[in-house]
Design goal:
Layout (H helix, E strand, L loop, with lengths): L5 H17 L8 H16 L3 E7 L6 E8 L11 H4 L1 H8 L4 E3 L10 H10 L3 E9 L2 E10 L8 H40 L5 E3 L5 E4 L1 H7 L20 H14 L1 E9 L5 E9 L4
Helix pairs in contact: 1-2, 1-6, 2-6
Amino acid sequence: MVSVSTEDMLEFETLLVEVSTRFVNLPAGEVDEQIENGLKRIVSISDVDRAALYQFSKDKTELRVTHSWAVEGIERLPEIVADERWPYAVGLLRRGETWNFSRLEEVPGDATAERQYLETTGIRSGLAIPLQVGEQLVGALSIVTFRQERIWPTELVQRLRMLGEAFANALIRKRFEEDLSAEKQFSASVIESLPGLFFMMDEESRYIRWNKNVEDLMGYSADVLPSTLALSTVSPKDRARATKAVEEGFKKGHTTIEYLQSMKDGQDVPHLATAKRATI
């Protein structure tokens, strides 16, 4: 039965430092590739045949395989829902408990689905570790062997847990960035769908954000607007009154004004503006 050598443990320490450093500012688009690279290294160093990373869904109802790596001749795990195949093991992981076995005889009798899967696939030893970030249970890391039985020393489990939690941190950050990007796309779509002029400005009346109508109807390009003061585009006839209304809006939180808007071609066009103060 195979164990882990001192040299292997030193390699794990090196890998942990590399992963922790690499993942600090890793762009969301590179997270999946780097996690797979990390799983590949784990398989190589620990001399196992397959490693996989699992993530809980946002509502925590499913634990799904999201990343996997395997040696040549062994299939990677597909993106399956683990709860459906391994209810006993997932139940332990949900309670924050590690599940491991060095031989099939160690698999408990009530793990019926797991035993059937292990016998069918030929897995001889396995280890599954729950991964937490703070108080949040985010997923699990598993490694298995097909070629030989092996034991799982505490030192190995500890280092695998730290590596898995580094992966989990990166996945949480990736999910946050993807959610933020989706929210930005949604708000941009809403803004662009507005029929009139929409823009945001700061207290110095600098444009911060606007819809395409501002460019099309006023005649200003996207390159020019950031350096243009919104109040400078108000007709001189109404500029003082508009300035006062803007000051009032920032002070009270809202304002409404009718004014003449000066277009780039020199025309003055009547506008009714309603504004609310916002914090971004």
